[in-house]
Specification:
Blueprint lengths: L1 H37 L7 H12 L4 H12 L8 E8 L5 E8 L2 H14 L3 E2 L9 E10 L8 H10 L4 E5 L2 E6 L4 H8 L6 E9 L9 H13 L3 E6 L8
Antiparallel strand pairs: 1-2, 1-3, 2-8, 4-6, 4-7, 5-6
Helix pairs in contact: 1-2, 1-3
């Protein structure tokens, strides 16, 4: 019995380690894909080069890295990736939107259904929570990367480019735009701050504040973000909307 118990413990530890490694590989894969879509040449894209180096340091197999690069460039034969949006509710009615990029719709939908249920939520029908969100353009800037540009100048340039809201949170500056204004705004602000992040996001119009299960909501969000098919997760849980 003792031997059986020890084997069970070893098996449990191995499963836990494998799951942890899979999550880490998933995050690194998404970083590589994200950066490779901007510029697939590591020599001209230092952020991509850094992501690849971190993947190697984490002992990610070479074929996984090459697969991620091919996926970013659309070179995977026999695979057709599609972008899908799933909607559902987390614990205590928190609204969750999941953007997925997948080559297997059934695999992704099954994973999402099971994951929502596991964390006390439910995957819903199309349109069930979309009305809670509005599409916005978002630029994020690290104030440490301003390279001599003062923040007043940055704000004036952002307003001139159509900024609707400017927030400062510690060392981060978040600037919101109408989605149609995002691309020209990036072109304008890149002259001042070459290292900025820009993306289209779904911003909640109203918020949920779980009284008892905020930790469970956070676990659900983190689990979803770690999945290889999930490109982005949006939610309206106010205590977690700090980043």
């Amino acid at each position: 019995m003792a031997g059986h118990s020890e084997w069970s413990n070893i098996k449990h530890r191995k499963e836990k380690q494998d799951k942890k490694k899979a999550k880490k590989f998933g995050k690194l894969t998404k970083e590589i894909i994200k950066e490779a879509r901007k510029n697939p040449d590591p020599k001209d894209n230092p952020t991509l080069a850094s992501a690849i180096e971190r993947a190697k340091d984490a002992d990610m197999p070479k074929e996984n890295i090459e697969r991620a690069l091919k996926k970013a460039k659309g070179e995977l034969e026999g695979q057709n990736f599609e972008t899908l949006t799933f909607e559902g509710y987390g614990p205590e009615g928190v609204a969750v939107l999941v953007k997925a990029e997948t080559d297997n719709r059934n695999r992704t939908s099954t994973y999402l259904k099971n994951t929502f249920q596991e964390y006390g939520g439910e995957l819903g029908d199309e349109g069930c929570v979309r009305w809670i969100f509005q599409r916005r353009g978002l630029i994020r800037i690290d104030s440490n990367s301003l390279n001599g540009t003062d923040e007043d100048t940055l704000q004036l340039e952002a307003i001139e480019a159509g900024a609707e809201d400017i927030e400062e949170e510690g060392d981060r500056i978040k600037i919101s735009f109408d989605p149609d204004d995002l691309k020209p705004a990036v072109e304008s602000l890149e002259n001042l701050v070459p290292e900025l992040e820009a993306e289209l996001v779904m911003v909640p119009k109203n918020y949920a504040e779980p009284e008892k299960k905020a930790d469970k909501v956070q676990e659900l969000i983190e689990e979803l973000k770690d999945n290889r098919d999930v490109a982005a997760v949006f939610h309206n849980c106010k205590p977690l909307l700090k980043d």
